[in-house]
Amino acid sequence: MQWRNVEQISYVLETVFNGVLETRMRGVPVVNPALSVQAIGFNPFNGDWLGVLITPWFMNLLLLPGPDSQWREQPPGGKFRQSFPYGTFEFTLAREAQLGTYALCSLFSPMFQFENQSAALAAAQAALQGLLTVPAARAVSRRDLLRGAFGSR
């Protein structure tokens, strides 16, 4: 898939993962029925597209490949490390027929700690903002990032 803009990315991701919700995830007990599928904050990053995908069963950082991505031809299940201003995180490659290969880094799974979509959206936005923020001179953990603890202490 050739990713062109934020609108296309949001539409395709939300369509594909709503389809997954209605088929493969139907009746699965890890689904939080208070939540919906939503693509958040996708923007170009180092030649790829970076954003967050919220579903009723997970919240992941997603990298969608740009035309020159080195990882786009690697098989699903492969891993690579990506550096951000906040630190370096490991991504796992996955594939959906309608999307092609993409890379994910889990933020939350399952999603029962979120009472509603607004709470999940706030966490997604905070995680993405934190990821792109240079931390103070201290060690950074994914746990701190997810708690919104970047820049504190």
The gist of it:
This protein is of the alpha+beta class.
Detail the topology: elements first, then pairings.
Elements: H1 6-22, E1 38-45, E2 48-54, E3 59-64, E4 79-83, E5 88-96, E6 100-108, H2 117-131, H3 142-147
Antiparallel strand pairs: 1-2, 2-3, 3-6, 4-5, 5-6
Strand percentage lies at 25-35%
Question: Mean pLDDT, as a whole number?
Answer: 92
Cα-to-Cα separation, first versus last residue: 42 Å
Query: What's the structural domain tally?
Result: 1
CATH homologous superfamily classification: [NiFe]-hydrogenase assembly chaperone, HybE
What's the alpha carbon Rg, rounded to whole Å? 15 Å
Flag low-confidence runs: none
> What would CATH call the architecture?
2-Layer Sandwich
Helix content: 10-25%
Q: What's the overall geometry?
A: globular
Helical stretch tally: 3
Fold and architecture overview:
The protein is α+β, with helices and mostly antiparallel strands. The chain has one domain: Yope Regulator, Chain: A (2-Layer Sandwich), CATH 3.30.1460.40. It is 25% helix and 29% strand. The chain has 3 helices and 6 strands. It has helices at 6-22, 117-131, 142-147; strands at 38-45, 48-54, 59-64, 79-83, 88-96, 100-108. It has a 6-stranded antiparallel β-sheet with strand order 1-2-3-6-5-4, with helices on both faces. A hairpin with a 3-residue loop joins β5 and β6 (100-108). The longest helix is centred in the N-terminal third of the chain and has 17 residues, at 6-22. The protein is globular, with a radius of gyration of 15 Å. The termini are far apart. The relative contact order is 0.17. The model has no long low-confidence stretch (mean pLDDT 92).
